[in-house]
């Protein structure tokens, strides 16, 4: 994972931190883990629109999309790894005798 961070442009790190902040804010707004009631999108609209603010400057849209996608993918993979580790701790695989 450290090698990935070294090869990513700095904008990916900035956007990753902003996405993490946005996810944390969403958890605060909707503290229940059920589908209903839905997360009120209006409460996050301003934060979403400022994810790339002052990061992209005059970059083309394709670059912006790639940075946001890379940041989101990293957060997703980190979450999957943490969940897998938790499941493994709670229910370790049985070794065959």
Q: What report would you give on this structure?
A:
The protein is mainly α. The chain has one domain (2-90). 63% of the residues lie in helices and 0% in strands. It is built from 4 helices and no strands. Helix 2 (10-29) packs across helix 4. The longest helix is centred in the C-terminal third of the chain and has 30 residues, at 61-90. The radius of gyration is 17 Å and the shape is flat. It starts with a helix and ends in a 7-residue tail after the last helix. The model has no long low-confidence stretch (mean pLDDT 84).
Largest sheet: none
Enumerate the spans where pLDDT stays under 50 for 5 or more consecutive residues: none
Helix content: 55-70%
How confident is the prediction overall: mean pLDDT? 84
Number of domains: 1
How many individual β-strands?
A: 0
Structural class assignment: mainly alpha
Task: Give short descriptive properties of this protein.
97 residues, mainly alpha
Short structural description:
By secondary structure, the protein is mainly alpha-helical. The protein has helices spanning 2-7, 10-29, 45-49, 61-90. The protein has one domain (2-90).
Task: Give a topology summary.
Elements: H1 2-7, H2 10-29, H3 45-49, H4 61-90
Helix pairs in contact: 2-4
């Amino acid at each position: 994972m450290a090698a990935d961070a070294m090869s990513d442009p700095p904008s990916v790190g900035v956007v990753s931190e902003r996405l993490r902040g946005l996810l944390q804010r969403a958890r605060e707004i909707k503290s229940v883990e059920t589908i209903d009631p839905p997360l009120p999108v209006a409460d996050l609209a301003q934060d979403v629109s400022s994810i790339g603010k002052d990061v992209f400057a005059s970059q083309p849209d394709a670059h912006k999309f790639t940075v946001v996608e890379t940041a989101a993918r990293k957060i997703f993979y980190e979450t999957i790894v943490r969940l897998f580790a938790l499941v493994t701790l709670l229910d370790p695989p049985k070794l065959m005798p």
